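Good morning C.,

I know you're traveling, so I'll keep this short. The sequence:
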Amino acid sequence: MKKRIKLVINGMHCGSCEKIIVEELLDLPKISNIKISSKDDSGELIYDDQKVTSDQIVKTIVKQGYKVKSKGEKVIADF
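The tokens, ready to paste straight into the viewer:
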């Protein structure tokens, strides 16, 4: 299933922080529509839960030194 996840990401300071997170997330399979904002301490993306889990997404960001909390997930398409 395709899902949209919204995240609270603490510890970002600038556009470089946003780019680091985006680049790491793009290494995961079936991730798209990534929106990361250091200004709002937020993140949002679409993923295929058959290929990657929300835990993997969170761990990928945490591994870069940021604190992450999910604000929820929503199914947007069922294949």
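Safe travels,
E.
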